[in-house]
Amino acid sequence: MDFNTEYGVDGEDTGPRVTIRRTNETTIDFMLSSTSLSLANSLRRTMLAEIPTIAVDLVEIEANTSVLADEFLAHRLGLIPLSTRNVEDMIYTRDCTCEEFCDNCAVILRLHAANRNSDENVKVFAKDLFAETVSGQPIQDARYQRNGAVDGLSSSEELPPRGQPVIMDPKGNGSLICQLRRGQELRVRCIAKKGIAKEHAKWAPTAAIGFEYDPHNKLRHTTLWYEGTNAKEEWPESKNKDWEEPAPDGEAFRYDSEPTQFYVNLEGTGVMPPDQILHAGIKTLQQKLATVIQQLSTTTDSGHELNGAAGDAGMGGMSPPDPAANGTAYGNQTAYGGQTPAYAQQTAYGGQTPGYGGAGSAYGGMGGATPYGRSGY
Amino acid sequence: MAVDIYESPSPKGKGGRMPYAHSSYSAGYAANKDPRVNGNVGSKMVVDGVPDRHELFLLADGEKKITFEPETRVPNAAMFTFNKEDHTLGNLLRAKLVKSPHVMFAAYQVPHPLFAVFKLRVQTDGDVSPKEAVVQACKDLVAELQMLDQEFTKEWELKKIAGAGADM
Ligand SMILES: [Zn+2]
C-alpha cells in the first residue's frame, strides 16, 4: 500500500473506494479506501449520533399493575426499535406547529395487555403495540413481519410503516416488554417522536460500528504492551491483516505516512437497513457542511454579517455577474481537489433539505453577491 | 405570603414544573424549559445544573452557527467559533484545511467538554482569505462525500446482483 497517494491530488478521479465484504439484514462489513482518517471517523461519528430515527419518548400510563415501576416501563418502551421508514417526512415536535404533538410529528402506539385468569405469566411483546392516530383512530393493521431478506440484503421497502415496531425474530414477537401475573394489567399510550442519538441513545440506528485501520501497525499509532521480548508474539493478529501487506523487513519507518484504508463493520439495530444508515450518515454530514457554507457565505471576510438575504436584491445591480454559483475566484482549480463539486447536481440535499437548498439560499442564489466574488484575493 | 405555596412551587427557569398528569412519564428526557420540546412531560427527575441534552445540537435563540474574528496581530488569520458542533466537524475541517497549499496553519480545540463549541484557527498565505479556505474545504468535503455515496451505491447494487451477500 502506497501511503503517499494523496487522494484527489493526482488529477485522476480518485474518490473514496468501497469494498463490501460481508452483509446481512442488519450489518455491512466493508472496507473504505482512498479517504482520510478524519473523513472516515467523522462519518462514523455521524452514523452513531446524528441520524434521525423514531423512538417512544413519552408514555402515558393508564394502568400498570405489573411488577415493573412506571418509569422502568417507560424506559423499556423507549428502547424498542421502531421503523424509520419515511422519517424524512416526519418533523421534529419542537419544529411542529402543534401544541403538544400531532400526526405530523408523532406516532402513537397503544399497548393493552392483561392476565385475567392464567397461572402462567403472560408475556407482553413489542408486537402488542398498536399504532393509532393522535385522535385515537387505529392505523391500518400493520401486523407486519419481516420475512427475512432473501439474499441477505434488505431494503427500506421491507420495513414496516413509520413508527411501528421492527420485529425480526423468527417467532415474530419482537422485544419482550414485561410479564404479567394473574390479575395484572398494563394499559399505556406511547408517543413516539423523531430524534437523534445525541439527545438519547434510544434514537441510534446503530448498535455498534467497528472501525479499524493499519492492522499491521505500520504507522505505529499503537504502542503494543509486551512482557517478553517481542510484542508480535504476544498479540493476536487482526482479522484484517490479510487485506494489507506488512511492512517489509528493514524498511525505514515513514513517519509522515497516513492511513488511507479503513475496515468498517456497520451494525444496525434493524430500525433502518444498513445501507440506508450509511446513506443517511453521509447526507447528515453533508448537511452539516452545507450549513457552514451557507453561514459563511453571508459573512464578510472580516467576520461581519452581510445584510442577509437582502443582499440578493440590494446588491444585485452592483455586484459582478455571478461567476457561476461555484466558480468563485477559487473555483475549480482548487488547492485540494480539482473535481468540480458534486453538489448543484443531483446531490442528497438537492432542494428538499433545509439549510442548503432552501428558498433562495445564500448558496447559489446569492453567489454573485457574496464577498468573495470580487474581493482582492 | 401564604399564597406563594399554591402559586408557583417550582423554581424559576430550570425545569421543575409541576406535572400536568402525574401518570405521564418521559421515557428518558432531561428537564426542559420549552414545552414544545417535551410535550406535557410529567414526573421526571430534575437534576440541578445538568444542561438539557438538546443543547448539544440546537442553537439557542439568536445564536449563530459560526462567528469569526480576524486575528489582529497576524495577517490572513482568523479564529472561527462553531456553536453546537463537536469533533465530528472540527477534526474534519481541520484535516481538510491542512492539506491546502494556501493554508499555513489550521487547528481546532474544544475549549470545554461541557460546552458544545469548538474553535478553529486558520491562517492562509494571503491568496485566499481564511473564510474562503474554510468554505472551500467544506465544498470539497461535500463533493468527496458525494463520491463516496455514489461509490457505495454502486458496490451495493453489484453485491445485490451477485446475490452473494448472505454470507455473514
Ligand atoms: Zn406536531
TrEMBL record, chain A:
Gene Ontology BP term (one): transcription by RNA polymerase II
Keywords attached to this entry: DNA-directed RNA polymerase, Transcription
Superkingdom of this protein's organism: Eukaryota
GO molecular function, one term: DNA-directed RNA polymerase activity
PANTHER family to which the protein is assigned, alphabetical: DNA-DIRECTED RNA POLYMERASE, DNA-DIRECTED RNA POLYMERASE II SUBUNIT RPB3
Family label: Belongs to the archaeal Rpo3/eukaryotic RPB3 RNA polymerase subunit family.
Protein known as: DNA-directed RNA polymerase RpoA/D/Rpb3-type domain-containing protein
Species of the source: Oleoguttula mirabilis
UniProtKB/TrEMBL annotation, chain B:
A single GO molecular function term of this UniProt record: protein dimerization activity
Keywords per UniProt: DNA-directed RNA polymerase, Nucleus, Transcription
Gene Ontology CC entries for this record: RNA polymerase II, core complex
Pfam short name (any one): RNA_pol_L_2
Primary location class: nucleus
Positions of the DNA-directed RNA polymerase RBP11-like dimerisation domain: 78-150
GO biological process terms on file: transcription by RNA polymerase II
Subcellular location per the Swiss-Prot or TrEMBL entry: Nucleus
Gene3D superfamilies, alphabetized: RNA polymerase, RBP11-like subunit
Family stated for the protein in its record: Belongs to the archaeal Rpo11/eukaryotic RPB11/RPC19 RNA polymerase subunit family.
Cited PANTHER family: DNA-DIRECTED RNA POLYMERASE I,II,III, DNA-DIRECTED RNA POLYMERASE II SUBUNIT RPB11
HAMAP family named among the record's database cross-references: RNApol_arch_Rpo11
Protein name: DNA-directed RNA polymerase RBP11-like dimerisation domain-containing protein
